[in-house]
Structures are given as structure tokens and as C-alpha cells.
Amino acid sequence: MKPQVVVIGSANTDLVIRVRQLPHWGETVTGGRFAIVSGGKGANQAVAASRAGASVTLIANIGRDPFGNAALNGLRLERIDTRYVTRSPATPSGVALIMVGRRGANLIAVAGGSNDELSPKDIDAALPAIRGARCLVLQLEIPLATVRHAIGLAHRHGVPVLLNPAPARHLPLKLLPHATWLTPNQRELATLTGLPTRTKSEVATAACKLRMRGVEHILVTLGERGVCWCSGAGTRWFAAPKVRAIDTVGAGDCFSGAFAATVAEGNSVADAIRFAVAASAISVTRPGAQSSMPTRSEILRALSNH
Q1: Closest Cα partner for 38 from 68, 7, 82?
Q2: Start-to-end CA span in the chain (Å)
Q3: Disulfide engineering: 255 pairs with which of 24, 118, 280, 291, CB 3.0-4.6 Å?
Q4: d(Cα 38, Cα 288) in Å, to the nearest integer?
Q5: CA angle 278, 15, 64 (to 5 degrees)
Q6: Which fold is adopted by the domain 4-12+41-92+116-305?
Q7: Which long-range contacts (CB under 8 A, 24 or more apart) does 74-80 make?
Q8: Measured between alpha carbons, how far is 66 from 71 in angstroms, rounded to an integer?
Q9: CB atoms within 10 A of CB 25
Q10: Model pLDDT for residues 45-86, shown as the tens digit of each residue
């Protein structure tokens, strides 16, 4: 039986323009290619976990508009359980405007739309799914009050929580001890701790400071520099395979989703990190967010080759 993973979060439509170089302040760049793709950190992580081998339920709020209809159909094609997805009758679905430059660097702006209406009542309605989960996954593209409520509910029912603190923002200190795994990137780690994170030693120092606030495991994702894992056993680094990145949008979501799927199976944190690093490395070699998420067989093949 597949491990049960519940993802609570956003579902967006990504409007993507690929350009030769990202614009500077006040600059207009031309010659880009345009695409409409499915995105949103919650939906991205749900797709990543599903393709990685988990049975996934998504709790979200999606508008009753063409973007929302397409997003919901896409999730169902990925065999994601959408029974707890609510549909906002008046508010449009979330949209992200994304520019992707050379080597996958990107600029992103998000209009939350219906994601901003996901409420604690929606979480309570999905309690049967949450109680049965082996891992609950959350991010910060939905109201913080809903995130707090969901984490508290999971904590009361003994469900491990993976919190991806993205987009970067300050979080209440009392929220952190209820997260089993925290998966910030370099910038999010700096925001959470107020410390520099330029070098490996600075990353390790900041991660350890964050762990002192009560999180059991800090997994800092650093792109081509790999992952820094800080736990009660100390700090450990995991290298990333060398790949030719063309689009890094969704890479962090791929890591969180693939990690959740693997750790929900009962694998060790170290093995789950290796699995998720391999998945993320594959994802950046492909365009798009959800479309770039690799399948379980692709990840296992990459691990065996590596």
C-alpha cells in the first residue's frame, strides 16, 4: 500500500516567459517565449509526492474559472485525491508571473487569489485524511492562520509535519517546535534566523540556531551546492549531482514532495534526502514546475547511476 501524504497549500497557474537575461529595475527585455503551466507550491509538492510513489490528498481552494478548472483536471490526472479541494465562487484562482533567464534563474510574483480563502474550517473538514497521513506537508502561500491551525491539528493527532517556509517570511517561534522537518532554502533560512547564509559554515550556523528553536530536523536546500541537514546528531552535507539546469522553478517543491513521499514509507531521513536531491536534480533539467517533476522510476534510476 502506498504511503499516505496530505498536502495543504496553494494551486496556481504559472504564466511563464523565458528570456535571454532577467531584467534589471525599470528595464524591459524582449524576445521571450511564453507558456501557461500548472503551479502553486502546494500543487507542485502534491504532484512531486505522487510521482515519487505516495498516495496524495490535496487540501486547497481553487477558483471557479478556466485557470481553476484546468488546475483541478491536471491534479486529477496525477491521481491526486481532490475531495477536500474547495472552489471559490467569486475569487479567481491564484496566478504566478514568472520570468526565467539563463541557467534557470527566475523572478516570480504571485497573486494569491482563492488561495487566500483557504480557512481553518477547510482543514477541520479534512480531519479524516489528516489523521490517516504518514506526513503532512505545508507551505506559506496560504493564510498563516490556516497553517498554524493545520500544524496544531497534526501535532495533536501525532502526524509528522514537513513545513516548507516559502515564500520567505518571519514565523511565530511557537509554531516551529511542531514541525518535524523544516525545508528552507538559503534565503528563507536567512529570513528565519536573521543571520548571513553566504558560506557553508554560515549556513550550518544558521541551521543550528533554527534547530535550537525546537525543530527536529532542518534541511536547507542550496541548489547545486546540495543540502545541509541539521539534527540532534549534528550537521551533515549531501552533495547534488552535476546537471545542466535550464529551469529552477519548482525545484524546492520537488525536494519537499519527494522527501515527504520517501520518509512516509518509513525510510531514514538520510535516504529520503538522497532520494529528494536526485529528484530535484532531474527537475531542473526540464522546463516548468509540475511538468518537470520526475517519476519514481526515474529517480531510482538516477540514484543507481550516481
Answers
A1: 68
A2: 28
A3: 280
A4: 8
A5: 105
A6: UDP-N-acetylmuramoyl-L-alanine:D-glutamate ligase (3.40.1190)
A7: 74/38, 74/290, 75/11, 75/43, 75/46, 75/47, 78/46, 78/47, 78/50, 78/51, 78/290, 79/50, 80/46, 80/47, 80/50, 80/56
A8: 9
A9: 4
A10: 999 999 999 999 999 999 999 999 999 999 999 999 999 999
Parse the chain into domains and list their residue ranges.
4-12+41-92+116-305
CA distance 183 to 252: 8
Rounded CA Rg of the chain: 18
Grid cell in block for residue 113:
487569489
Catalytic residues: 253
**CB neighbourhood size of 166 (10 A):** 20
Task: Note if the pTM is more than 0.90.
Answer: yes
pLDDT tens digits, one per residue of 125-162? 999 999 999 999 999 999 999 999 999 999 999 999 99
Phi, psi of 70 (to 5 degrees): -65, -40
> Is the CB of residue 147 less than 8 Å from the CB of residue 140?
yes
Q: Which residues contact 96 (CB under 8 A, 6 or more apart)?
A: 12, 13, 14, 15, 39, 40, 108, 109, 110, 111
| Length of the chain (residues) | 306
Dist CA 233 CA 229 (whole Å): 10
Q: Residue 235's closest CA among 265, 263, 273?
A: 273
